[in-house]
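re: ur msg from earlier - yeah i can do the uridine-5'-diphosphate-glucose complex, just paste it... oh wait u already did. ok heres what im feeding in:
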Amino acid sequence: MEKSLPLHLLHANKFTIIINRAHAILHFIAILFLLHYRLSTSIPTLPWLLIFASELLMSLSWLISQSFRWRPVNRTVFPDRLPTDGELPTIDVFICTADPNKEPTVEVMNTVISAVAMDYPPEKLHVYVSDDAGSDATLRCTKEAWNFARCWVPFCRRYGIVTACPDIYFSSSEDDYREFKGFEFKAEREKMEQKYEVLKQRLRIIVQHRDVALNTNARDHPSIIEVINEYTETQEDEAKMPLLVYVSREKRPSHHHNFKAGALNVLLRISAVMSNSPYILVLDCDMYCNDPTSARQTMCYYCDPQTSSSIAFVQFPQTFRNIRENDIYDGQIRSTFKIYWPGIDGVGGPILSGTNYYIRREALLGNFRKEEDLMALKRSFGPSNDFIKTLAEDHKPNFIHDGESSRMLVEKAKVLASCSYENQTTWGSKVGFMYFCVLEDYFTGFTLHSKGWKSVYIDPKRPQFLGTSTTNFNDMSIQWTRWTSGLVSVAISRFCPLIYGLAKMSLVQLMCYSELAVDPLLHCLSLWGFALVPQLCLLNGIHLYPKVSDPNFNIFLIIFVSAISKSLYEIVVTTGGELRTWRNEMRIWMMKSVTCYTYGTLDAILNKLGMKEASFLPTNKVTYDEQVKLYEKGVFDFRAATMFVAPMVTVILVNIAAFVGGFVRVLVGDDGDGYWEKMAGQILLSFYILVSNYAVIEGMVLRRDKASIPLPVTFLSAVFSVFILLIGSYVLC
Ligand SMILES: O=c1ccn([C@@H]2O[C@H](COP(=O)(O)OP(=O)(O)O[C@H]3O[C@H](CO)[C@@H](O)[C@H](O)[C@H]3O)[C@@H](O)[C@H]2O)c(=O)[nH]1
Ligand SMILES: [Mn+2]
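and the outut:
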């Protein structure tokens, strides 16, 4: 009976697998022909070497990326088959915020409220807010949010509200209250809406009046920990609420704080002495819970004795509420969450993605069933006996709201949040979240997988979490530069997945990890090659591709068409996107390659050489109406740092020069040596680059609005391109 019904199912997408593998074989054969052609027909010259290198790197990156297409799967869960509430394990929720200027407090509080309102037994849920800005305003706002939640949570429970994030609930028109449409509900809803308006008003006032002087101390302040529930007098008949704790770890300029991973490790310790839940949900401050059932969905894996012990984390996709149909910056990161993660889920489990995951505490800290040597534990975990005790299996701390004992607990917690606590321990290197690179998620997930843990990817129809994605060029570029830097720093370290992961994971999963790590490096090198070398050669009359009449020309044509049709197939058929999505992704990929991928790679290299410190600039989550309008119209906002715009414009100018030069010679100067025949490949390549990036030409020449490309940037780029044309021609020819 009950027992025989599974809690979850896994389906391999057989049809997609067949298509993927068949395409991979054909495309691979075409690449072999290309290699054969390159090695057999040309005399090695510098241009030949460069273009061949670009082709090799691109092919290599294609080859490794097939790992994500090897065995895509999807999963179904059956939360109604879970054991009774009494048997469910407890959960700690970690919400990180770092900068009230970039992370609007109203949104952060919405995330907190939506987490408190999750559909889970309240006594089994504990929410921790980590404030890396140490902002007094955020603390006060958290208390206000708590007061609102005391009415909001019972309201949601009573009427079965699915959208438990007030901001989304009150701004969407959808009927979320199913059978309760009566008068009573309407009146209650109105009351709640008013309360929410009052809350927003109060939060704004607190933020406006926040003590700017205090705030400048974000990098220098003691730990501040407060249990928020204690500020409210619980009435007898009041609904039970989860525990809510505000944490701001100690910060001193003399101590490196290790960014988000540092904050998470502090929360790991503090939550251990307060609630010590075996599972932890990690959320970025902008990631609202859009559906209260994610915890129950997750428990379908953690409550299944067959799978439970091997799973380190259950990952949900990152989904965003500010994405429009015409997503010009690919803010939804479609290929990652729709193609890559289901792909790697079939071969060992998805990569940890920073937010929206339920991780097992034991996977981060280890399990200590037997008596361990106390000194050894202290060397690893730091001096706190209270914390060490929590490592033992089944240790349940007793959190009592009785003034004195909870005050003592908070004092103990403050020690755990001090910036010197981790000195001479293995926090961040062996235990907890890893500090090795700014991409704490990727690297922590990688270490877990290489220890033999598995992970699971659930992508339900209704997005479980909704965040804010970058929808302007500058923010997107900063974010991708950080990601690239993190990934490349792993690729060029001793942890390079290709070497480090060998023999520790399945080969295909290892290739997936490697793909992500080396992809920016391979793409920035090869795209710079394709963007400049054929063009310089075109202007200097050197041909790099076979003549149109040569059957070998078909090799290039086939590779080009095959790559494009496969990505079109994935976008339109597999993920139900539009043709426009394909254009957007192609274009932004080209743009990112010559900017973010390049800078991120340089950043990682400088970092490795000790010439630059790693940095984590939190992504800006404040949106301006004007910017949003541009994004909604699908118009690029080029008001970005010159370093992000100039390389793009330079590439476009070089391509214009090459294309015009080549085209004119085709038209007027046909000197009988079959110029077009020889140069068609290069002329068409330039044409393709220009057509794909028409938006840049438009921003440079046709647009005159504030968000177009500024004239000085165009001039600077023109100087760069003339320089490239002169030097390039000199060197290459
Ligand atoms: O010193 C820091 C820096 C950041 N954060 C928080 O970390 C979260 C993620 O930062 P965000 O600026 O939103 O970065 P994104 O680029 O959007 O984040 C992606 O990439 C990060 C790694 O680079 C992951 O940590 C994130 O989970 C993932 O969503 C936010 O809640 C921040 O408040 C901190 O708590 N402390
Ligand atoms: Mn973010």
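cool cool. The chain has a mean pLDDT of 92. ping me if u need the other ligands too
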